[in-house]
Description:
The chain is built from six helices and four strands, in the order ββαααβαβαα.
Amino acid sequence: MRLSRKLAVASTGLALLALPIVGATSASAATPTVATATSLGYSNTLDGWIRASLQVMAQNGIPGSYNSIYRNIIRESSGNPYAINNWDSNAAAGTPSKGLLQVIDPTFQAYHVSGTSWDPYDPVANITAACNYAAQRYGSIDNVWGAY
């Protein structure tokens, strides 16, 4: 955006510098949109979170199927996006597993997918990062049948 300055002279001979006011519109334009279920046209439910994640995964070449993601979510968190494991060895080491697919922060950060939230409790971000990790480690979330 180019700012232009104009010099205005008041009737008293006083010179005024007129600057444009930068409003919230231009400031908010710089804020990137984060992929969520609702921003991608899906419901804000487990079904919508999985479908939104699959869309982001497809755009990033990350393999995985609806049924495998659902199966692993039910085993890991029972579908609770705010689930946290405060009792296993990861928790004892100070990095509890979080979210739908129970990802620890270092794994979430290492496998985070651009365009999703940096919040490990965000359902789409959690699913997508976990599936990215599973793809790198096991070929796909489809190959994960237990804790990983």
